[in-house]
Amino acid sequence: MLKEFKEFAMKGNLVDIAVGFVMGAAFKEVVTIFTGGIVSPLIGLIFKADFKDLKYIIKEGVANAEGVIEGEVSVMWGAFLTSVIDFIIVAFVMFMLIKGINKLKKKEAPAPEAPKGPSQEELLAEIRDLLKK
User: Fold this and answer.
1) What percent of the chain has a predicted confidence (pLDDT) above 90?
2) Where in 2-72 does DSSP place strands (E)?
3) Which tens digit of pLDDT belongs to each residue from 93-122?
4) Could you read off the pLDDT of 32-62 as tens digits, one per residue?
5) Which stretch of DSSP H or E encloses residue 73?
C-alpha cells in the first residue's frame, strides 16, 4: 500500500497541482493586498468611506460602556465585493498563465500512420495473377 501511495503521490499531475496550489495561495495574498491597498481606497473615494467597511445595517446596535457596538445586524457588502474582485483578478491571472503555458508546451507530433498494406483490389489481382501461372 505504501508503494502504491508513493507512485500516486509522485505522478506528474499531482505534483503539478501541489505546486500550483502553493503558488496560487501566495498569489492570492498579493492580490488581496493589491485590492485592499489600491483598489478599495480608489473605490472608497467614490463612496467617501473605506470600501471594505461599507455595509447595510438591518438592525442598529447599542454602544456599550467601552464604546463597542453590540447587537448590530448588518450585511457586509463591501467586504463581499472586495472578495469577489480578488477572485476575479486571481481567476483571470491563472487563466492567462495556463494559456501561456499551453502555448509553450510542445505540440505533440502526430503518430506516424501505420504502413498501409495493399488494397483489396490489389490482393485480388495478385491472387488472379498467381492462379494464371
Assistant:
1) 0
2) 56-59, 62-63, 69-70
3) 878 888 887 787 766 666 677 667 778 888
4) 888 878 887 887 788 777 777 778 888 888 8
5) strand 73-75
| Residue type at position 104 | L
Residue with cell 505540440: 107
The string of DSSP codes covering 90-107 is HHHHHHHHHHHHHHHSPP
Given a contact cutoff of 8 angstroms between Cβ atoms, the answer to whether 35 and 89 are in contact is: yes
- Indicate the burial class of 54 (C-beta count within 10 angstroms; 0-12, 13-18, 19 or more): buried
Q: Is 105 exposed, middle or buried (0-12, 13-18, 19+ CB in 10 A)?
A: exposed
Give me the count of residues in the chain: 133
Nearby residues of 102 by Cβ (< 8 Å), 6 or more positions away? none
Report the distance separating Cα 60 and Cα 71, nearest Å: 7
